[in-house]
Amino acid sequence: MSKLSDFDRSNKHEATVLSTERITPEDVPEVRSIILKIDQPDFSYQEGQHVGVIVPGPHEFGHDTHFRLYTIANSPETSAGGSVDIELCVRRCFYIDEFSGEEHPGIASNYLCDLSVGDNIVLTGPYGEAFNLPTESDTNLLMVGSGTGIAPFRAFMQHIYEQQPDWSGQLVLFYGARTGMENLYHNDLKNDLDKYYDQKTFMAYEGLSQRPWMHADDGLQNVLEENAENIWELMQDPKTHVYLAGLENTREKFEEVMQQAAGSNARWRWMQEEMKEQQRWSELIYS
Hints:
The protein contains 6 helices and 13 strands. The chain is of the alpha/beta class. The protein folds into 2 domains: 4-126, Translation factors (Elongation Factor Tu (Ef-tu), domain 3); 140-286, Nucleotide-binding domain of ferredoxin-NADP reductase (FNR) module (Rossmann fold). The strands form 3 sheets. A 6-stranded antiparallel sheet has the order 4-3-8-1-2-5, with helices on one face. Strands 11-10-9-12-13 form a 5-stranded parallel sheet. Strands 6-7 form a two-stranded antiparallel ribbon. The radius of gyration is 19 Å and the shape is globular.
């Protein structure tokens, strides 16, 4: 897994805020949908890639700028004027100093959440190997994510049901959240997932954490365990592709549950390596 210092930041783009909306209620952690316009026709990306956000300083420890990666949450779209619009889903983050116990705002997330329409920011990238969608419409997609890791899967849904309406393979999403109200796309403003439920091929399973003050991955493990047998059966189909997105814990929880479903670590590792060799396994894991 790459470190932030490994990313080339020389390919910079100026972006303008077209809209910024809070998509979670006031009584749960804030997540905002931020639409950015990039007036560079040569800027292009694919589902699953991410951009770097450069936060101007100065910052603590003498840093002139702060750098953070965010996954693009929409399918590629170019406006009539030639500009490219991208969406970021950003959770306003805070961290606790382990020595003083004081709460400090996350630099990049608060910078983005505080933006207003018309503000300009600097982006870099895009980065990462894209989550390439198979061209065969009978392919099954098994998607696993938690928190804002669900963003690339939202882009998948847009691409498939808007550009490949004849898709006949199963699209199965497993998503972990700390609370039901925190679900990024089950809300009044961005009720994206609901509009796909009338598609015969789409199924989504949400796992809620039994400890809402803990991580969303706790809820993910719950829903994976409840459906482990069906997931393992789906993975036996040679037409199934697996996509993992989110924090390192997302992969760890998935592998832990699947190892149990497989009956042994050796059998699980064989299945995993076979899917990787056949290019049916993709990850977008970040720290």
